[in-house]
Amino acid sequence: MPATFDQRIAYYTERVQEKLDSVLPPANRPPKRLHDAMRYAVFNGGKRVRPLLVYATGECLGLEEQALDAPAVALELIHAFSLVHDDLPAMDNDDLRRGKPTLHRQFDEATAILAADALQPLAFSVIADSGDIQPTTRNKLVKLIADACGSVGMTGGQSMDLAAEGRSLSGEEIESMYSLKTGALIHASVVSAALLSAGLSTERESAIDAFGRTIGIAFQIKDDLLDVEGETETIGKHTGADQRLRKATYPGLVGISAARERCNALLRSALEQLDDFGADADSLRWLACYIVERGH
Question: What tens digit of pLDDT does each residue of 263-278 get?
Fold first, then answer.
């Protein structure tokens, strides 16, 4: 294994790619159009940040890779499902995702809805089928991921986001929305590995939990900044969408400079949560900095 986490990213990315390929139905299996669309949604690029957070947290806690594969794959499937729905005409109505046509543009709207609907239960099937995880822990993982993508998590956050279009929210309200819309799945990625760690102290469990929640909000603020400052060719989707849709965003509320300062403050807070882990948390530190400093 390479010595530093940035060098190990290629290894982990390839690992999760292979696992995703193994659990997704082949494109030539009927219904072929649906399965082709599911694969398009999952294999159209992406940084695989959520699986990387699972593996990085696993490294921090000294866990075996085999046990981390199931939550890494499941969370990426949930993420892919959410992006398909986000891009639909009834939601953000986007034509471009990761530099390619969005799923409903590449196929059609009905197929996009069905493909996303199929990706979500597949994620839970992956957890249920994992023989490397104890049954009790599997149940906890299902609960964690279900909450993260349900009405008290990602779906609820998206509902709040849509309801806030054209309205003014306070900074606290925006961060609360972010903690669900984006942060819940980021948080679940970190905590899923902690669930697999036997004998984790209450203090360390709380620190991992706080790290996941904090960096999840920072992730969305950075996304907002990229929508304002980024270029379509770099970030792989049309910029300025938040302003066109009159979305309630942190940069829209406080400006670019203050939003960047808040993002950096959240990063510092997240990193402080890892102090007790010493060098074991270096992979998580690297990922946290990447999330805030990334260019796409």
Answer: 999 999 999 999 999 9
HEC readout, 56-85: HHHHHHCCCHHHHHHHHHHHHHHHHHHHHH
What residues have CB less than 8 Å from 28, skipping those under 6 apart? 35
The DSSP string of 198-244 is TT--HHHHHHHHHHHHHHHHHHHHHHHHHHHH--HHHHSS-TTHHHH
Pick the CATH number of 5-293 from 2.80.10.50, 1.10.600.10, 2.60.40.10, 1.25.40.10: 1.10.600.10
Q: At what angle do helices 202-229 and 49-61 cross, to 10 degrees?
A: 150
pLDDT in tens, 23-47: 999 999 999 999 999 999 999 989 9
- Token pair listed for 217: 């909000």
Q: Nearest Cα to 242, choosing from 289, 188, 174? A: 174
Amino acid found at 224: D
Q: What is the pLDDT of residue 238?
A: 66
Q: What is the DSSP letter of 101?
A: E
Structure token pair of residue 42: 């999952």
What does the alpha-carbon distance between residue 11 and residue 189 come to, in Å, rounded to a whole number? 18
> Which one, of 155, 183, 165, 188, lies nearest residue 245 by Cα?
165
User: Residues near 176 by Cβ (< 8 Å), separated by ≥ 6?
Assistant: none
